[in-house]
Amino acid sequence: MLAAYITHPDCVRHDMGPQHPECPQRLGAIRDQLLIKGLLDHMVPHDAPLATPEQLARAHSALYVQELMASSPTEGIVQVDPDTSMGPHTLRAALRAAGAVIEATDLILSNQASTAFCAVRPPGHHAEREAAMGFCFFNNVAVGIRHALNVHGLERVALIDFDVHHGNGSEDIFRGDQRVLMCSTFEKGLYPFNGEEAIGPNMVNVGLPTRSGKDAFRDAVLQHWLPALDAFRPQLIYISAGFDAHREDDMGNLGWTEADYEWVTEQLMALADRHCQGRVISCLEGGYVLSPLSRSVAAHVKALIRA
Ligand SMILES: [Zn+2]
Description:
The protein is an alpha/beta fold. The chain has helices at 10-13, 25-36, 53-56, 62-70, 90-109, 140-150, 168-174, 213-232, 258-275, 290-304, and strands spanning 3-7, 43-47, 78-81, 84-86, 115-118, 157-161, 180-187, 203-208, 236-241, 280-284. It has 10 helices and 10 strands. The strands form 2 sheets. It has an 8-stranded parallel beta sheet, sandwiched between helices. A two-stranded antiparallel ribbon has the order 3-4. The structure holds zinc ion (ZN).
């Protein structure tokens, strides 16, 4: 069974300005690198559909969804937080990004794909139940997970987040939802300046010291994530895949390389083989310097599709 590659041209049209790191060129750089490495030959392309308000309201409040949709400008920009703004094309991109994870979920749970990579933007893991922040509007992965739980009736889903920043939005949405086990690593002391406090048994969020390097990351995966995940026995695994911990990305200081993204993905694929027939859905989050971003995604996707 082939893997799915889910994206949409609308995701390139969202633009927060020429100096903004979360730039439209990210998706083209990723596609080029996957093409050059021959990885797209092993994947079936799918257009991301637009998520519906009903689907979004499984992870966000209905009022938040309604208000964000109503604030979409026909021209100019609307600032939603100091780093995050909506232009005329933002809402459609955000709806496609969340729709991509819904599509991935449907494809995998109907046995039409074994794994999926969602090459989408805006990212999602900072978006809380009732707040857009940190370049994120809707929490794409959270919307997909609630679709798997509430529509497909899954009972146990894992959410892995290896972005250099803490996925505060996912933590906010899944706090207290015992159907979801969230396992993450993030660099301590970085935006959004939280995540170190344990907020419940379904959260295994490991803060890593600045410049701790790959060994600290691998120890966190082996000693904290995997024992919890094996005990949880997930029926489907989602990855909030941010690549901004790469040593060439100036957003963080953890010093990882492509080899670390390949390694962690191999660990997660082995976990998926043990518990859920190899079913893994990965969705792009951060990663801002185009060359290391695209090389890291290629290393991740290579392991994800076992090419
Ligand atoms: Zn990040």
